[in-house]
Design brief:
The protein is about 40% helix and about 15% strand. The chain has helices at about 1-5, 55-70, 90-100, 120-125, 150-160, 185-200, 220-225, 235-245, 265-285, and strands at about 20, 30, 40-50, 80-85, 105-110, 130-135, 165-170, 180, 215, 250-255, 255-260.
Length: about 300
């Protein structure tokens, strides 16, 4: 009871200014809405907190992918939502500077007045996305962005009749593929322990719940994100629980990944926090405190 009472997330309502984005064309454009019909092929949501140093590497990777994609598919359209989650550095300015330098009109920055946490930044970004497919990816550029093609192919293959499907990057499938993963022994051990704990609490069949590279069809995003409660690191597990409860297919796809310095996570403190948050999430669904609404 105490865990549920004290660890249950309570997402705050958006501030009025958080309904708008800035781009190189617009100082104050109104954000889209997940309830609207799709307007572009792909939305890319990047949660970013104090990421001025690491963000340009990811933006360059995305730009190279888009240029290559447009050579194959001239009409390919996308939007890139950089969700600045209350940063104290020049994260949003860095993104806009990059967009100006490279003429990237599709890049939009959204500023949170108060930090929500990575899960909150992802959720707010997805709730404003206009893509037929919606990807969120970490700002550190740890995953090779072109691996998105494998996730897109997987959602086309596994989608339900209503179009709902999720494909998630996995750093655990090297035996099955030619992908490359570079991570420290400490991180590998902690991930093994966390995976065991997650399995005990009911998320089975997914080997890597925490990889920051997940793709949703618009139909799947509409079923998942309006139901989200968790705004911190454990949000990935709530996504997978909501998918399981609603019978949405989830497929793991091997990705190329390397550890990047500058993580905002404190290994000990955040591991304990995540364990308690996960227990609270599971109990809230089991006890019926959180009910799943169908927003499709």
């Amino acid at each position: 009871g105490l865990v549920v009472r004290f660890k249950s997330p309570k997402p705050r309502v958006r501030e009025e200014s958080e309904n708008f984005y800035a781009s190189i064309d617009e100082k104050r454009g109104r954000l889209g809405d997940l309830k609207q019909p799709a307007a572009v092929d792909l939305s890319i949501v990047v949660p970013a907190y104090n990421e001025e140093a690491r963000l340009p590497v990811l933006l360059e990777d995305i730009r190279e992918y888009v240029e290559g994609r447009r050579q194959r598919q001239a009409a390919f359209s996308f939007e890139l939502l950089v969700v600045d989650d209350g940063s104290r550095d020049r994260t949003a300015e860095t993104a806009l500077d990059y967009a100006r330098t490279h003429g990237m009109r599709e890049l939009k920055t959204v500023r949170h007045v108060i930090n929500r946490g990575k899960g909150g930044a992802v959720t707010q970004g997805v709730m404003s996305a206009l893509g037929r497919a919606i990807l969120f990816c970490d700002a550190d550029g740890a995953t090779r962005f072109s691996d998105i093609d494998a996730l897109l192919a997987q959602t086309r293959e596994s989608a339900r009749a209503d179009g709902a499907a999720i494909a998630i990057g996995s750093r655990n499938n090297q035996a099955l593929s030619d992908t490359v993963v570079e991570r420290s022994h400490v991180r590998a051990f902690l991930q093994w322990g966390f995976h065991t704990y997650v399995t005990i609490l009911g998320v089975r069949g997914v080997r890597d719940t925490q990889c920051g590279f997940k793709l949703f069809t618009r139909e799947a995003a509409r079923l998942i994100f309006p139901n989200m409660h968790v705004e911190r690191f454990i949000f990935d597990v709530e996504i997978l629980l909501l998918a399981r409860y609603q019978g949405i297919p989830v497929a793991e796809v091997p990705v190329n990944w390397h550890e990047v310095a500058g993580s905002k996570m404190s290994i000990v403190r955040d591991s304990i926090q995540m364990a308690l948050d996960l227990l609270a999430v599971r109990l809230n669904y089991l006890l019926g405190n959180w009910r799943i609404a169908n927003h499709a």
